[in-house]
Design a protein that fits this description.
Layout lengths: L1 H17 L12 H11 L18 H15 L4 H12 L13 H25 L13 H13 L1
Length: 155
């Protein structure tokens, strides 16, 4: 029984590694260039999956981007050159962490602005309704009790 459990645990650990997206034919012979390519690939967004980096995506476009990164590295480009080339070709959306300037400034600031406005609205609602309290005695009077009793007798 222990062997079966151990086998299942190892299988659960090993199977996800089979789905790693970098194919053996993409891996560069130079270890240093391959490490740089992996670092760059983790900073670039898959345009198909959108919330996954191209290093872990199985999409064809992600494969093309990984090959493009490796090709640019083989041509002698620095990490910044490769990233700027991909951004120039596909737009700033390809970056998982967009730059804090220009059009992306709105994307960076919209979250905190919405949070602050929500907190302000909740506090305003609380302060506005602070004085509006329900009456303490919510018990039924004798007429209402009689009506309820009659209603349930009919059913």
């Amino acid at each position: 029984m222990k062997e079966k459990c151990l086998f299942l645990v190892l299988l659960c650990i090993y199977v996800p590694t089979l789905s790693l997206s970098v194919q053996p034919d993409e891996i560069l012979a130079d270890v240093e260039l391959e490490n740089r390519a992996r670092m760059i690939s983790k900073e670039l967004r898959c345009l198909v999956c959108q919330n996954e980096n191209i290093d872990s995506s199985n999409a064809e476009l992600a494969r093309d981007l990984r090959l493009l990164v490796r090709e640019r590295l083989l041509l002698g480009g620095s990490n910044e050159d490769v990233i700027s080339h991909v951004v120039k070709r596909y737009g700033e959306f390809v970056l998982l962490k967009p730059k804090f300037a220009g059009e992306s400034l709105i994307l960076w600031l919209i979250g905190p602005i919405v949070l602050i406005c929500s907190i302000f609205c909740l506090l305003l609602f609380h302060w506005k309704n602070k004085g509006a309290r329900l009456p303490e005695d919510l018990r039924l009077n004798s007429e209402e009790e009689q009506e309820l009793a009659n209603y349930f007798k009919k059913k």
